[in-house]
Amino acid sequence: MLNVLAKNVPWLLGGSADLGPSCKTRLTFDGAGDFSAENPAGRNLHFGIREHAMGAILNGLSLSKIPAVWLGVPDLQRLRSTAIRLSALMEIR
């Protein structure tokens, strides 16, 4: 579903911690690629096992007017303590 949607929505980025392939959140269509210094047009973000960093990056994307969502089940206790609180203070989604 995400791959079909992402082909038609050019600003849709995929991202997850270490469970992208098993949760089927990785964008795999031709041209999706992985975001990196060598490939800034990549549409897959690899957060690693860093819930706070993931939340902070999603906040930044939201502030840049790029709709941000996370899929999967991150450790909400860690997100709640900082990134979710900051998004509430900044009044972003």
What topology emerges from the helices and strands here?
Blueprint: H1 2-8, E1 14-16, H2 20-23, E2 44-46, H3 51-63, H4 76-81, H5 83-89
Strand order of the largest sheet: 1-2
Beta percentage is 5-15%
Q: H/E order of the elements?
A: HEHEHHH
Shape: globular
Largest sheet: 2 strands, parallel
How many strands in all? 2
Report the radius of gyration as a whole number of Å: 13 Å
Would you tell me the overall average pLDDT?
80
Specify the helix fraction band: 25-40%
The end-to-end distance, rounded to whole angstroms, is 23 Å
The number of helices is 5
Structural class: mainly alpha
Low-confidence stretches: none
Outline of this structure?
With 93 residues, the protein is mainly α.
